[in-house]
Specification:
heterodimer, A: about 725 residues, alpha+beta, 11-stranded mixed beta sheet, 8-stranded mixed beta sheet, 13 helices, B: about 625 residues, 10 helices, globular
Chain lengths: ~725, ~625
């Protein structure tokens, strides 16, 4: 390796390298000049604009014109995609100046493997002063950030750019890619920027022989102008005065903003969406292949019989119902593909937080279920849907938009078999698919059964009460220092909410529980040592497990600090009572005990407890967020409940309890808090819920009502009055 | 900025980026580490051959770690060998690339990096690197610590008798470091060997002083060489250092015509020379963007003044140079000066490239030196940022260096005064408030405000004042000009803070201080093992008058808090009359360097302060 450094060093100093580069540089420069002429001389009136309407005088910046164009062409072996972004911006404050004064350019990127491609970028920048004076930036001012043979990146700082100037720049990217393996990158373009736009245009031209599938969403369909010019399919959009996008929270651009989606379908025609027949063909015959070549699959099929036997023995059963078989199959496939350590020699041992991120391939999972359940004569369908943040089922433009999974039908009752992570449950859908329409087709039975079974269904949605986080706190005032609280906290999480607590579980404990679930007959150590190449790894695993356990102490402390915005003085106890890894067992439950300073204020002989802060942080909307333009799309409907038991210390009474009772209930959700006194304890019960995953923008006022009530509650105090 | 200094910063930054195995420094350790420096005479030049040898061992479980070594035109890598478990490893992909860190727009510093795999417990990876330092001036600091804990580190200096150097030792007390000096007859050289045993890893922490303040290291100063009659002087005296730096600056050819025209434009209609000085200084602060651009010769050569003006951006050297040339065009005695910020422990008494990492402009006016640092953006002349206050500078002065010190500052410079006139309306707190900022507190506010989008400026100012609490409602905001650098910055506003007062029966409880600075700012003495450097000498003063509402009287008032140490002062007083409560708080940092021996005092003081913040004032209905 060192030899190449010396040679490179020599080349640098002798100038040979420089000479070899200059031919390539010259070709690049020539093409760059051509591109500049083409774009800057185009005489587009939108790009001659210099003034900003009065209503936008106070904006940080105004986009005078923005044009995005794409040209797709292909030859026998290669696809050529040319994209151009041309933007003209008036800079009106220092923040925008900072944003537009430096640019990065990926000048060249290429890969010579089978999916070979070559990407070349050109950039041109022009600065126009308020007095009309124009100046083109010399791109040779750019400095290299990466200078390898097939990866060249540059950065440029714009000289003499000030507030009040207009910056007019373009980026042209030419991508050539071998086309026998994959299609070119699809386009998903949502219209809207964080600055207002005076003029926006989109111009897409695709050589007709490449074939196009397209959809235009969330806008009047007449806005998209389609035509055929020469041999190209043309898509064009032209808008004037596009307001800036201010909604950031809970916004799905594909579902709210005007969006053009398109892909290259290779079918040489133009289709709106995807042909249902194509989807049927794909699902019925292309995903499920008998003997799909996955290394893990044969062993899973072979071992499952023994797993069932062990399971029957452990649970004292003579036979298993089809449903039980299906669920056991689910856990076994989940275990075999995600929990087991199957690595070769030399790979790192990862047993910390990153280990829990493993996820399987959809294709593998579908085939594993199909083949395993077939052995036990359990019918299966294959279902496919489009994730919510991408669109509805009709908005798919290619088969890649579909996520698919098996629906098992033991005794004709459907069980969803979607595995996304180590924590997925049988018959649970990922939040991105809940409520979506799906295609289903039978993948068992005769050919005509399969053909007849293709239909559409609606996938179920979970409810706010199913996705629950319940906290119970027992709060005691330290008798020697009433300003210090001792808190015993229990958190239980069910449904989609349990994924929020994944970081609190230790892989070591997860693994040992799962081995019990699937009635694995051997120990972890034996399994490791059985594979010769993994011999002697067990002590290393032990060391790694020990470190992960130690790190978890830090995570517990950090998470408490995040929850309450105050560092606990001490964490005295922590335990995961239930990991919640299986649907049939108890839900995730965690216990913590810690002491906290800073929640009790002193007032003469009395004390004031910031009781509102004990329900952890609530969303506080900014002034800007209160005005909403687009629908609300959240991950899942949910409920959070708190039950606080405050032990009133001897010699004190509690005042101010009445003002803790609040109730805001409306169709979008609720915030309800109520109190009762039981002996020397105050019991405070709080429920907050977001009832739906989606709310129309008209319901924003309702959402704000209960969100404000929750935020206000955090300010509540009660008084400990000395008797 | 000097390579060596920022190399360390850079590597520390890299370390945090590749944080994987760093969380457990015990897993990978340096079984042994050594650096050998040999002064050689080659092709009529004195050069230094550097041999680095690092032997990493895996203590617990297999992992892989990132390894990197910087290089540039003055320090080249000439050989690299990696031995995994004793055998040459030809599978590791070694990369050579530009060094990219967010803070530097561009740097000619390059980096050689690769991943070292450890296949099992007990596995070793040995990295051997040979480097050629082309000029002995570039050999400056060598640390006895590393980014991993090391069982043993050896530094060997082979100094032939024709080479005259000084070796300065820092932070050796309470460390297990042995030093041995021998004489090698064959080489006619003195050999200095330093051996450090069981050194903990250097860790990146927030609010850390520069590494030269805390870690044991050597500062090697090449003074001169006399090889068979060929004499060369390196940094024998401070003047030698000055001459070397100045040589780079004297290769500049400012376009005086353009600069003169600009200077006249900026100072048109301003007859007073000091006002002209301010006008020029403020123009550079306002119009030139700071972009750190380290290029060529270890980043010591400043950019041409007229170039900085054309580009409207530059780094500290470019901006200092532009400031100087514009002031010279105004007829003022302006000069470049080299300075080491408080990131660096040394001053120029040991002449070395490590002494300076910044450049500013000095102006002599009315027999007094004024130091202008245009990178500060919102400072007026005479106000000095903490990082340069009190530091020694080398001022351009013909052939002989002029050493001066930037005046030291006190917390008084940075006063931030909150004056509040409050009243109670039901359970709401209302009032008229004036915030006055000066010194670094002013420049902090202006910097944050001006970086915010214009349409959110009002909101930004509000957020800054309200600490982003939408319940603390302020209105009717009036400010002195936000782009003005002279004088105090004042912000006046009306306050409506609903439900700020807690009312229970006949009692009202008042939390009188909305801004609780340093609340719970306890230092974790278990995790934090190195000294702390505060940003600046903060000086927060709050003076609040609260009118007691009719029909109420004050029934309990917290006791005063007086904590005063040489490093800081926390002072809170409460006074009450029949109809008014007066609250005064002053939090003052006098010394930004907090040694770890003082952490206990700090924590005790912060605990008392935090507890005081929790105390309410009680008003009872008559």
């Amino acid at each position: 390796m060192y030899k190449s450094i010396v040679i490179t060093a020599l080349l640098f100093t002798t100038g040979l390298y420089a000479q070899a580069q200059s031919k390539q540089e010259r070709a690049y420069q020539e093409e760059s000049d051509q591109v500049k002429k083409e774009i800057m001389d185009a005489k587009d009136p939108a790009f001659a604009q210099t003034t900003v309407p009065e209503k936008y005088q106070n904006e940080s910046a105004v986009i005078l014109a923005l044009k995005f164009s794409l040209d797709a062409d292909h030859s026998r072996r290669k696809d050529h995609i040319t994209t151009t972004l041309h933007e003209r911006v008036k800079i009106q404050d220092k923040a925008a100046l900072e944003e537009y004064s430096e640019f990065n350019i990926q000048k060249l990127k290429s890969s010579s493997w089978a999916r070979g491609y070559k990407l070349v970028s050109f950039m041109g920048i022009r600065v126009i002063k308020p007095n009309g004076q124009q100046r083109d930036i010399d791109m040779n001012d750019a400095v290299s950030v990466k200078d390898e043979k097939n990866d060249k990146k540059q950065k440029i700082a714009i000289a003499d750019l000030q507030v009040g100037d207009i910056i007019d720049y373009y980026v042209r990217i030419n991508k050539d890619a071998a086309n026998w393996f994959t299609n070119p990158d699809p386009l998903d373009y949502s219209i809207g920027e964080k600055y207002p736009m005076l003029d926006f245009s989109l111009d897409i031209r695709i050589f007709k022989k490449m074939g196009v599938s397209w959809r235009y969403l969330n806008d009047d369909s007449t806005v998209l102008k389609r035509s055929k010019e020469d041999e190209d399919y043309v898509f064009a959009v032209h808008k004037k005065d596009v307001p800036k996008i201010t909604d950031e929270r809970w916004l799905y651009p594909n579902r709210s903003l005007p969006t053009l989606r398109l892909t290259y379908n290779g079918a040489k025609d133009i289709t709106n969406g995807v042909n249902e027949k194509d989807i049927q063909q794909y699902l019925t015959y292309q995903i499920i292949s008998v003997g799909a070549q996955y290394a893990a699959l044969p062993s899973i099929l072979k071992e499952f019989g023994k797993v069932m036997d062990n399971y029957k023995k452990d649970h004292d059963k003579k036979e298993l119902t089809n449903k039980e078989i299906t669920e056991l199959a689910y856990y076994y496939i989940r275990y075999a593909s995600l929990y087991r350590e199957n690595e070769g020699l030399g790979a790192d041992i990862e047993v910390g937080q990153n280990r829990k991120l493993y996820s399987p391939r959809l294709h593998f999972v579908a085939n594993a279920f199909r083949q395993l359940l077939l052995k036990y004569d359990i019918e299966t369908d294959l279902a496919a849907a489009v994730p919510r943040h991408i669109g509805t089922l009709q908005d798919a433009v290619s088969l890649d938009d579909l996520e698919y999974f098996i629906i098992a039908k033991p005794d004709n009752v459907p069980v969803f078999c979607y595995i996304s992570s180590m924590f997925s449950y049988p018959d649970e859908l990922p939040t991105s698919l809940e409520g979506q329409e799906a295609y289903t087709v039978s993948v068992t039975g005769s050919k005509s059964d399969k053909e007849k079974s293709f239909k559409k269904i609606i996938l179920p949605m979970s409810t706010a009460s199913q996705n629950l986080e319940a906290e119970k706190l027992n709060i005691t005032f330290n008798a020697e220092n009433l300003q210090q609280l001792k808190i015993d906290r229990m958190i239980m999480a069910k449904g989609q909410y349990r994924y929020q607590y994944v970081d609190m579980l230790l892989y070591e404990d997860m693994l040992s529980e799962e081995r019990k679930t699937v009635s694995s007959p051997t120990t972890f150590e034996r399994d490791l040592n059985a594979d010769n190449s993994n011999r002697k790894r067990f002590p290393e695993y032990n060391a790694a497990f020990g470190k992960a356990r130690k790190d978890m102490d830090e995570t517990v402390k950090d998470n408490i600090e995040t929850d309450y915005s105050v560092k606990p003085t001490d964490v005295t106890y922590y335990k995961i009572a239930e990991q919640g890894l299986e649907k049939q067992n108890k839900p995730f439950t965690m216990h913590q005990s810690f002491t906290m300073d800073g929640f009790v204020k002193k007032a003469g002989n009395n004390y004031m407890l910031d009781i509102g802060k004990l329900i952890t942080g609530q969303i506080e909307l900014t002034k800007e967020e209160r005005k909403r333009t687009y629908d609300v799309n959240m991950a899942f409907p949910r409920t959070v409940s708190y039950e606080l038991w405050v032990n009133i210390p001897e010699g004190y009474t509690l005042e101010g309890v009445e003002s803790l009772n609040k109730s805001v209930i409306n169709p979008a959700g609720q915030f309800v808090s109520s109190t009762k006194i039981e002996g020397n304890k105050l019991v405070l019960t709080i429920t907050k819920s977001y009832n739906h995953q989606h709310e129309a923008v008209g319901a924003w006022d309702q959402m704000m009502a209960f969100m404000d009530a929750a935020a206000d509650f955090t300010k509540q105090k009660v008084l400990l009055k000395k008797i | 900025m000097n390579i060596r200094t920022y190399t360390l910063i850079v590597l520390l930054l890299l370390q945090s980026v590749y944080a994987k195995s760093q969380d457990d420094p015990d897993n990978i350790e340096l079984a042994s580490s050594s650096e050998t420096f040999e002064f050689q005479y080659k092709q009529k030049q004195v050069t230094v051959k550097q041999l680095i040898q690092k032997d990493f061992v895996c203590n617990s479980f297999r992992a892989s770690i990132p390894f990197s070594e910087p290089y540039n035109n003055q320090e080249e890598i000439t050989d690299l060998t990696i031995l995994t478990d004793g055998r040459k490893n030809r599978e590791i992909s070694v990369r050579y690339d530009y060094l990219n860190i967010d803070e530097y727009f561009f740097s000619d510093q390059k980096i050689c990096y690769f991943s070292l795999p450890f296949s099992k417990q007990g596995a070793h990876n040995e990295v051997k690197i040979e480097k050629a330092i082309h000029d002995p001036r570039y050999l400056t600091t060598v640390y006895l610590t590393d980014y991993y804990p090391s069982k043993q580190k050896t530094i060997t200096l082979i100094v032939p008798r024709w080479m005259d150097i000084d070796i300065h030792e820092f932070h050796f007390d309470n460390q297990q470091i042995k030093k041995v000096k021998t004489y090698d007859k064959d080489r006619d050289a003195d050999i200095y060997t330093y051996t450090a045993v069981n050194m903990p890893a250097m860790k990146k922490s927030s609010m850390s002083p520069g590494p030269s303040w805390i870690y044991p290291h050597l500062l090697i100063r090449s003074k001169s060489s006399d090889y068979k009659g060929e004499k060369t002087v390196y940094f024998n005296t401070t003047n030698d250092l000055y001459k070397w730096c100045r040589n780079l600056a004297s290769q500049l050819h400012p376009d005086t015509a353009i600069l003169g025209a600009k200077a006249r434009e900026i100072t048109a209609g301003i007859p007073d020379k000091f006002d002209q000085l301010k006008a020029v200084f403020y123009w550079v602060e306002e119009n030139i963007r700071y972009i750190a651009f380290e290029d060529g010769l270890a980043g010591f050569r400043p950019d041409e003044a007229h170039e900085v003006m054309r580009k409207k951006y530059g780094d500290c050297k470019g901006m200092a140079n532009l400031t100087k040339e514009l002031l010279v065009a105004c007829g003022l005695d302006a000069r470049l000066c080299w300075i080491g910020t408080n990131h660096i422990m040394y001053d120029h008494s040991i002449p070395s490239l490590n002494a300076d990492n910044h450049m500013i402009c000095a102006v002599k006016y009315n027999n007094k030196w004024w130091f202008l640092d245009a990178t500060e953006k919102y400072m007026q002349p005479g106000i000095y940022a903490e990082r340069i206050a009190g530091r020694q500078v080398m001022i351009e002065n013909g052939d002989d260096v002029l050493l001066e010190n930037i005046p030291a500052t006190t917390a008084a410079q940075n006063a931030r005064l909150f004056k509040e006139s409050l009243a109670i309306d039901g359970t709401n707190m209302t009032g008229k408030i004036r915030y006055t900022y000066n010194g670094e507190s002013k420049s902090d506010l202006l910097y944050n405000i001006n970086l915010t989008k214009k349409d959110r400026l009002q909101t930004a100012l509000e957020s800054y004042i309200t600490n982003k609490n939408s319940h603390y409602k302020i209105s009717n905001i009036k400010t002195t000009q936000l782009d003005q650098r002279d004088g105090d910055l004042e912000v006046d506003f009306d306050l409506l803070y609903p439900d700020a007062v807690s009312s229970f029966g006949k009692e009202m409880y008042i939390d009188i201080d909305y801004n609780k600075e340093y609340n719970n700012a306890v230092i974790d003495t278990v995790k934090r093992k190195t000294d702390i450097r505060f940003d600046c000498k903060n000086n927060y003063i709050t003076e609040t008058e609260l009118a007691i509402p009719a029909g109420y009287k004050m029934t309990s008032l917290p006791e005063d808090l007086h904590i005063s140490t040489p490093n800081f002062k926390f002072d809170i007083t409460y006074k009450a009359t029949a109809n008014k409560i007066t609250y005064r708080k002053q939090i003052q940092i006098n010394n930004t360097y907090l040694q770890k021996t003082a952490f206990g005092d700090w924590n005790k003081a912060v605990a008392a302060l935090s507890k005081k913040y929790l105390e309410q004032i009680t008003l009872t209905q008559l």
